[in-house]
Design a protein that fits this description.
The structure is a homodimer. Chain A has about 220 residues and is an alpha/beta fold. The first copy, chain A, has nine helices and nine strands. Chain A binds a DNA duplex (22 and 22 nucleotides) through α1 and α3.
DNA sequence: GACTGTGAAGTAGTTCACAGCT
DNA sequence: AGCTGTGAACTACTTCACAGTC
């Protein structure tokens, strides 16, 4: 029952939230057990990978039967550290920041909006989804109030590093960066990046490999 | 001048847009040449990786000097197939879809908004950023008009697969899926996925590894 | 002297294939 | 019989280290 937990490979970690989502669905459907084969199908990967991934959690399925859905869901939440909500603070109340703040999907999945801050005084005080934009100077207070929080950078690339520094100074230990810029943080801080244009460019690459486009402007 | 182009590894492809962004910056700053060491620093990777990545493009830098920024930028655009704009069509005019449609960053980086469609009649006709929402039945026409386009799925997860099927039927060959659901498409279609909550959960994992949180509710 | 391009070595991730439990 | 858990084989990616060029 322990889980002599070896270090979980990054590639596995990146898949755990997908399994989590599927398990939530299965619970909703009152499905009591699931085999690696089925889970693999639902996740779009192969069964050996599922079994190996789950084995890192110290999970014990039952041979001949499969995995107990409730218990696996419990373990998955435990492993991901999503047994409680993690509030998020959005920095930047431009289009993207407002969009993210409005996006209810976050709250539903355990990441409620704690606040939105912006350096631009003309934006401060305006409504964004469920909150009002607050000045950057409120950041420290906001973080202290909700800690631990995840900071979301939704500013132009040019100020992303500065914002990251301010988040770290305010006590934020996990950052999701949507700005198209390299951001570096101390090693104790977790950082991930999402760049929407970059994803489109990757699609562009694979697509133009198949069916090269005329290059005439 | 040829570039006896070996197949480019996926990991390299995923980094090319980052190099592209950096090169655009360097051109703006009128910097004529760049060494792999410097490029690596700007991209947050190591120099050997940069050199190997660029070598897949059939790029020739100059030993003792570095890479010509203009030429490298040209090659990068060529490789990524972003020498012309790729219009995007957003499916789903909910919070996320409207957010994406409003997000100017796309247009600036070569992905202008061709339209927004939604299955919900009460949303059809409403303004979203620069366009009006059109009904799903206009999808085929919209695609035909702008082809090739990239389809963006910004719907609830439950209808994501159906939307993907409709996009494919309408002639879309590249899809970016923001819905939290597995979507499968024929092998000739390029597909990528961005799941915002999933990114937050990954951060949650790494953070709770460091500083486990009390589990009391 | 400086910097690229790349084989070779090293590391991480995936998949196979099967022993072992229920 | 059915399905997990995992060593072993394989594949992909990264990094080293250095010969080659300017």
């Amino acid at each position: 029952m322990d889980g002599h937990t070896r270090r979980i490979p990054d590639a596995t970690v990146a898949r755990l939230p997908e399994y989590l989502r599927i398990l939530v669905d299965l619970v909703d459907q009152r499905i009591p057990t699931v085999a690696s084969e089925r889970l693999a199908e639902l996740a779009g990967v192969n069964a050996a990978k599922v079994r190996k991934d789950l084995s890192y959690l110290g999970t014990y399925g039952t041979r001949g039967v499969g995995y107990d859905v409730d218990y696996l869901l419990f373990q998955m939440r435990q492993a991901l550290g999503v047994t409680q909500d993690w509030p998020v603070i959005v920095v930047g109340a431009g289009n993207l920041g407002r969009a993210l703040a409005n996006y209810a999907g976050f709250g539903e999945r355990g990441f409620p909006l704690a606040g939105v801050v912006d350096a631009d005084d003309t934006k401060v005080g305006t409504e964004v989804g469920p909150v009002r934009v607050r000045p950057m100077s409120d950041l420290k207070e906001l973080v202290a109030e909700h800690r631990p929080v995840i900071g979301i950078i939704a500013t132009p690339g040019a100020v992303a590093q500065q914002v990251a520094d301010e988040l770290v100074a305010a006590g934020v230990t996990a950052i999701l960066n949507f700005a198209p810029a390299l951001v570096t943080v101390p090693p104790s801080i977790s950082l991930r990046k999402v760049d929407l244009a970059l994803e489109l460019q990757i699609l562009s690459f694979y697509q133009s490999q198949r069916e090269p486009r005329r290059d005439s402007a």
